[in-house]
UniProtKB/TrEMBL annotation:
Region (Disordered) location: 86-107
Name the record gives this protein: Phosphatase PAP2 family protein
Bias kind Basic and acidic residues: ranges: 86-104
Keyword RNA-binding part of the UniProt annotation: no
Length: 182
């Protein structure tokens, strides 16, 4: 029980510290990242660019990323958020205006982070260079979710784990299907 309390306290301290991070860079970069990631627009745009300009490999990577993202969102938003009702970080911890735009749904896990990680991991398994390029906005999405006060770091970590699991599942599903139906 002491370990859980220490983890919770560390999660709260890190949330406060990240939300209070005030730099010109954060004010300039993170809000547009949030806008682009809203409703997975960023990942759909990346998929379209890969499919249009990347040939067969780009289309394969785009399809893998979108499929992994869909599975990840189903698991995070459709299952985990329904099972775990965790309130968002308190508004008084967040010293900037972004706190007013937070969703009403459960804080756990971060669906934005799950989508970002699932898409990036799905792409990386098919086209490593494109996956590496997607890792930059993926990381910014994860940072932004805590900085804006929408999530605790543990919500972001859980979203990342679910996203990785979704990408792995999408990667293995065809061979598992063939093994059990063949």
């Amino acid at each position: 029980m002491e370990i859980l309390m220490a983890m919770r306290n560390g999660d709260h301290r890190l949330t406060k510290r990240m939300a209070a991070w005030d730099s010109a860079w954060a004010r300039r970069v993170l809000p547009p990242v949030e806008d682009a990631a809203e409703h997975t627009k960023l990942w759909w745009a990346a998929a379209v660019a890969m499919a249009a300009g990347g040939g067969w490999r780009g289309r394969k990577a785009a399809a893998a990323g979108i499929t992994a993202m869909a599975v990840g969102e189903l698991l995070s938003n459709g299952v985990a958020k329904q099972l775990v009702e965790r309130p968002r970080p308190p508004k008084e911890w967040i010293p900037h205006d972004d706190v007013e735009e937070r969703p009403d749904s459960s804080s756990f896990p971060s669906g934005h982070t799950c989508a970002a990680v699932a898409f990036t991991a799905g792409v990386a398994l098919s086209w490593p260079w494109a996956g590496a390029a997607c890792a930059v906005p993926m990381t910014l999405v994860a940072l932004e979710r805590v900085h804006s006060g929408a999530h605790y770091p543990s919500d972001v970590a859980a979203g990342a784990v679910i996203g990785l699991a979704a990408a792995a599942l999408v990667r293995k599903a065809p061979s598992m299907f063939l093994r059990y139906t063949g």
